[in-house]
Request: fold
Amino acid sequence: MPVPRTAVFRNCGAGASACQRLHGYTLMPTESTPHPTEAGLLRSRMAGVFTPISTPFSADEEVDYSALIFNVERYAASGLLGYLALGSNGENRSLTESERLAVLRRIIGHKRPDQVVMAGAAYDAQRDAERFLHEAAALGADFGLVLSPGYFRKQMTDDVLFRYFSTLADTSPIPVVLYNAPGFCGVTLSPALVRRLAAHPNIVGMKDSASSGIENFLPFESEGFHVLAGSANFLFRAMLGGSVGGTVSLANSFPDLALELFRRGQARDEQRGVPLQERVTRINQAIAGPYGPSGVKAAMTLAGFQGGIPRRPLLPLTAEQVEAMRLFLAGEGLL
Reply:
């Protein structure tokens, strides 16, 4: 049975003390009484910049948990709203299930107390996604970011996906955020599907990383459903259209630059925001465009974070590629 929207942030299923710890409010004794700051609370937990945090690996390809903690503690000292743990930059599909939970536990354990954590769920079997959302909630995650199943992508019609996301949200102890990323799963969420899902009381937003255009989803932005840009390449434009923020890989290496662009969007400052967006796009394309997570990790290391290496089959950048990136970033005044 769907959770009433008025209860999404008032009873996540973890108990009163856990709810207060996870979501920053006191559990109200009467479920029928709407929390007076519910809509504002949801916005405050989603309006900002999330870093889709990288999972660093050491030379033997083991997860480098000390490097992860180092990075989290540096991000905690920034103005970042929070983290997308276990996304594509986190190399979710390259991790074992125990590693996913261990990574999530360390991010939650070392973040700033007011920072928000989205836990990425990228499974082909619904029962695995259901189990993970319960485990993520128990660890203290605030939201579950759910990618479409992609192995049987030809069968992923709107009706199949509606049942998947809506029934997953029915049982999830934390609010669900849709993840539209056809580049990773081969499935594109249609505007018609998102319109239907946005009415679900426990589906509270979406991250759009598709090339089809975030403007297709911005009409669904509301007090109970927020649309996040999935790339720094269109963060400012998305915010002018009504988006409340974004989950952008540039924040892994240059969080201050991502935050500056976000603030221009908040202020609707086109005079400074448009040229800044052009600069950010140029930088982002040089880092992630040709290299994906490997480029993000190289840029992180150049910027003073501990990026580590990617896990096979991904290749790390060559010494020549790293040097070319260093010269480019230095020319942009970032190093």
